[in-house]
Design a protein that fits this description.
There is one protein chain. The chain contains three helices and four strands; from the N terminus they run αββαββα. By secondary structure, it is α+β, with helices and mostly antiparallel strands. It folds into two domains: 69 residues, Ubiquitin-like (UB roll) (Roll), CATH 3.10.20; 49 residues. Strands 2-1-3-4 form a four-stranded antiparallel beta sheet. A hairpin with a 2-residue loop joins strand 3 and strand 4.
């Protein structure tokens, strides 16, 4: 398993979909768990068909209350989450670069102490 499978939790998305039967169609609400809205939409389109997914919104819990985010609120939340992930990636990259530089300095020191030139 990958690290991000443990780190990222799944979100619940509420969707309105059309279910086609032999003689009629029903509009129903259902939920799906996924990391992002686009993944939830892809799952629902695969299950119910391309044209049968009418609406997908994220379910949010605030101090015991649950509310559904609008598409604009989801867009803003998605951008904020993306910014958070990018900052974390930046921290990790800086740490890796610092580690690599320290290892190079240590190797250079070792080579110089042994009389070798790198």
């Amino acid at each position: 398993m990958r690290y991000n499978e443990f780190r990222n939790t799944l979100n619940t998305f509420i969707a309105t979909v059309r279910v086609v039967t032999d003689s009629s169609s029903l509009t129903v609400r259902t939920s799906v768990n996924a990391e992002t809205q686009s993944q939830a939409t892809a799952i629902l389109k695969r299950l119910f068909g391309e044209g049968n997914v009418l609406n997908v919104a994220q379910k949010i819990s605030e101090q015991g209350k649950t509310r559904v985010l609008s598409s604009d609120e989801l867009r803003v939340k998605s951008l904020a989450d993306q910014a958070k992930r990018l900052k974390q990636q930046e921290k990790e990259l800086k740490a890796r670069n610092a580690l690599t530089k320290a290892q190079q300095n240590m190797a250079n020191s070792f080579n110089q102490s042994n009389g070798q030139v790198s």
